[in-house]
Amino acid sequence: MSDMLSIGASGVRAYQTALATVGENIANVNATGYTRRAVTLNEVAGGSGSTNGYGAGNGVTLTGVNRSTDVYSSTALRASTSDLTRTTKGAEWLDRIQGALTGNALTSRVTAFFASAQSLAAEPDSTALRTGMLSAAGSTAMAFTATGKAFDQVDADIDTAGNQAAQTLTSLAGSLTKVNEGLSRSQPGSTAAAQLMDQRDNILSQMSELVDIDAKMDPIGRATVSIGGSSGPAFVQGAMTGTVSYARDDNGKVSFSVTLRSTTTRITPNGGTLAGLTDGAERVGAIRQELNAVAGDFVKAVNDNQKGGKDQTGAPGVALFAVDPDGKPTDITVDTAFTSGSQIAAGTGGGSRDASNLGKLEANRISVGYEASLTTLVTGNATAYKQKNTIADAQAAIRDGAATALSTSTGVNLDSEAVDLIRFQQAYAASSRVIQIARETMQTILDIR
């Protein structure tokens, strides 16, 4: 009877834990990052040397609370998340660039300047038209300067976002090493180990939003992580973690590097926020270079044209625009020596109706195409932004598919849990009944006189 009692008791203990595990699954059906648990039950074999060769074993034992895993789906979800984040972050910076290019109406201000010059060419002796052209020149200079400042702000925001992403990635690595240490101390197959693995996967998911990673797990679940893909530098190795840093060189190029064990290695991010930042910085640099070229050509052409003509009093023309020698080519102002519309060199000395010099300015406008160059920058960036969004839509579908696949294989299914709940409840009740029968049988034996 003692064997029967111990067998029943082992069943009660095992199925009590099994019911608690199913209850935990049901309670966390909507919990983010939770992975389904399942118990593993094994028979407790009978002892050797038994006088009854046909006797029963010693009941059942719970050998572990196993966590559902799908390495392929987890890897696919992290990879698709990195790809999507790179595209969406890149699109955000393209949108910022578009705002910088169009927010100060630079193209229309340049057009207005040349239009005022054309109006003056039709009536070069008009004081009002000369004043209007000088005013248009001031508006154009301010538009160039404001556009340059807008790009300065975009660069500053990229630097802030880059430093923040580096700090967040370093912090996540520190959290992952703590999880690795916890897994080293936890009993494999325990609930504590399963909870730590959930935390580990959540951290890896957050890392994949920042940069493409390659994660490998050892037999007890500790993660080793490389960033920048499988060929990238090691970032987390057991209890060792690296530090990510952000930098911008003198040419405006941004870069990320990781330092581990006193060795610093440059990262080449192919996904995540870091790659999106790198793409955005490269785009800003390229457009900034083209904008500077347009600004430089525009100022030179107008100033050269002025110097090649005569003003309203017949004096040689002077430079209309000035560029800050310590600033950027877009830091343009109307020259302090240019104080009156009468200084505009409309002609070349052919009298008060001479507007030949303004005709040369218009010819230069047509041949160089300043407005066309600015419009090309705007439309080119807008096209790139639209393409990014189209790609993001496709990548979002891929990411959602990977998330669904992972949820299907490792998530909680209430129908399956309901079946397990009934099954384990019946087993628990039956084990309790075994104990009751054993006690009744023992009492019957004791009652024999």
Automatic annotation (TrEMBL):
InterPro entries for the chain: Flag_bb_rod_N (IPR001444), Flg_bb/hook_C_dom (IPR010930), FlgK (IPR002371), FlgK_helical (IPR053927)
Pfam family name, one: Flg_bbr_C
Domain Flagellar hook-associated protein FlgK helical: 95-321
Compartment(s): Bacterial flagellum basal body; Secreted
Gene Ontology terms, MF aspect: structural molecule activity
Flagellar basal body rod protein N-terminal domain location: 7-35
Coiled-coil annotated residue ranges, if any: none
Protein name per Swiss-Prot or TrEMBL: Flagellar hook-associated protein 1
Gene (name only): flgK
